[in-house]
Amino acid sequence: MDKLKGKRIMVWTFMGNARMYEALRDYGDRIDTIGLFSFKVDKTGTITESGVAISNMLTYINKWPHIRWLLTVANDGANSIFKALRDNTDGAQDTFCSELVRIMEKYPWCSGVDIDLEKGDDYSTHEASTAMFAHIYSTVKSYDSTKEMNICLPGMTSVNGSVGGENWCVYGDLDKYCDTASIMTYGMAWAGSAPGPVSPRSWLEGVYDYAVRVMNPEKVFLGMPAYGWNWQIYDTPENLGEYYRGTSHTYYAAKYWMQGVYNFTDDAPPQPFIPILSYWDDYDMGPWALPHVYDYMEGRDATAKTYPQMAEVYNRRNYLTAYAKQQKTEFGEILIDHDAEPDSYSGIVSVSKTLVTLGEDGSATYKFTIDEDGTYDVAVRLCYPFWDKNSIYASLDGSTVHFSENRLWWPYWRTTFWATLAKGANLTAGEHTLKISVGVNGVQFYGFRVCTDFSEEPTAGDAEYTLAPRKFKDINGDMVGPATGFKLTLEMLRRKPDSALVWYEDFRDEQKIPESYWTTLSGEWDVWQDPNSDANRPYSQLEGYGQLAWNYNGFSDIHLRAQIIIPPDGGGKSGIFLGSLFLCINYDTQRLELYEGSTLKGSYSASYAKTAKADLRSNPSVYTIEMRKRGNKVRVYSSTSYTLRFTATVSSGGGYAGIRSDMPVNCQLLRLGDAWTYEPYERFDVIMPDGTETSYGRIERSNCTWDEEFQVFTLTSDVEESSTRSESISLDYEFYHSHIMPLECGNDYSAKIIPRDINIWISRLFLGDSDGFSILYYQNVDSLIYWANQAAYRWKLRGMCMWSLGQEDMRVWEWLPKQTE
């Protein structure tokens, strides 16, 4: 039995520090493979020696003959070099191969080479990239068949599944062109990213579950970081004089932070030296800490929150967010609170205590009495059930107001809302009359109020937090606090704007495809809902064929998005339509196609697959497609990143809109938005612990008009939204910082976050020392050994590789088996 099966260890000689040589001297018997990180390749293919000198390694090379000593050749992540080698520009690839032979001849004791080429290009280059590795591999084997070749590969969770854009890499194709492969699953979190585990569990599991399906597991090393990152979160990087907020550190640097050896004022006063405890993340299996943070909480820890803010969880992050704004109303003192039941009515009217619906020639009259003369506000409660049920008249003592709405994106469709009938009306003591009459059949009336002061506004809610800074004990045993003051840092997630929402349909409601809202123009449609779910709104899929449309034929300029699933019996053309426009996935041609009638107006080649019946509900292949029609121009997008694929000029005006398919299709989302108006997901205000209020996140834009009431903007010309702003919006968590506040340790303080837009995530709050505080993640012996065991026993890989020797918790070597037995 091979006792070392799955337990081989690979490292690289990158650091050149004292601990690297100490590990080589004392623990070389625990190492299977070492990449001598001493060679660089340029875009001509020429290799030069750089880094740790080979002469410094000869002592250990001679001491540990069992180790596979590989000559590591790197391009230091330069895309220009990768491209030149791949494309054999001016013979660069040929030169590179001959150079590899040269350095192997120079160091004949080497076991072979380690190829570390990073920052390739997208999937379109995968064949040329694989051919390059095949050429390198054949060169090495032709020179000496006993020489071995290790390749360093980016983390991939599938074909085209690189988080860093390295989609040139296809594991299954490269498997036969290497003896071993080190998958570099370190770097999910980095200097410029949001803080987090360098190698989170979800990424590791995705990569190695995939790798073992398409590669020989016994070739593969699981890549782990021996290092960590310390992200400064008390100010922006530019104000700190740095490009990124993260600083790399070894295990022992992290340990010094725990022991209070370091601080943020150049390891000297005025900031105190405070030993701290680290937390253990029992999911990602690694330690982390919050140096100089005096209070910390997650979004869900709010002591009070107002609707529509609600607690959600994603990837174990407990945050607050709002999915839609609600109307916030205030009435002052309410003198009259009248229900919907009228004193009299005429025409076609549906009457109850709670609701009056006006039909043909319908009207209803209400009498009410004021006790004393005064100035009052009168508000009516209405509902527009659909886009064509959008007009009603109301009068107060004969003074008539017309209430109507034509904006598709207006957020109060199909819900009750309050509107001002009269503001500051002089009402005398005695009887008064309020009358409603039909504008368009079907508008609903829920009653009215007479009050001293009516106001209303759309709101995304707010959340209030209690912060309780307390003193820490420093390295001398003294109780200390910040020397200068405190800062509050908020970790928030903003998003790029999306079209102002008209309708969001995920088919999860208990009433499936209600006839009041939907019409089947052809074919058959139904909704499947997960029968095993306990959720109020279980996961669901629309399924059917033909045409299913909203029960409204007045659509013209709209933005329509769908998430399409092709079932085993599906195929042909399936997608979304607006009148005679049909945007479809054509399974037969493997293209995204736009038709006007029977005329093909544009197409984009892609790859589409059917989902097997066993995966249809739990793991479907989902394809996002969308079209935005403005006048006679249609923009077509696809993928989860909503990438523009092509534009087309059309002549059709509009009509019904919905989903259409020649054959059975499944759909898990159908979203309707405005073609011109956008909702930003970016601004929030904060009332600080010292009582001041600060606004964050709003982006200045051009070529648009702004709606102050609803905080949306409408384009004034037919351009992409991204062209209206110069500021980019991160897809990652961002930090926002307060001014310095002279708070006192021992007191409790309040902070309130007021999102002005929806879809902003309130993730975490940190109250820290204004001289500096951070989030620190690192690797220790427990973390490294856990993942070494996963490599051996879960995925049955060759073993684990660590970047890099000299950064690690030295205790790890005592827990790894000797490679010489």
TrEMBL record:
Molecular function terms, GO-annotated: hydrolase activity
Coiled-coil ranges from the UniProt annotation: none
Protein's name in the database: Glycosyl hydrolase
Sequence ranges assigned to domain GH18 in this UniProt record: 6-358
Organism phylogeny: Bacteria, Bacillati, Bacillota, Clostridia, Eubacteriales
Biological source species: Youxingia wuxianensis
Keywords: Hydrolase
UniProt-listed GO biological process terms: carbohydrate metabolic process
Keyword Acetylation: no
One Pfam entry name: Glyco_hydro_18
Superkingdom to which the source organism belongs: Bacteria
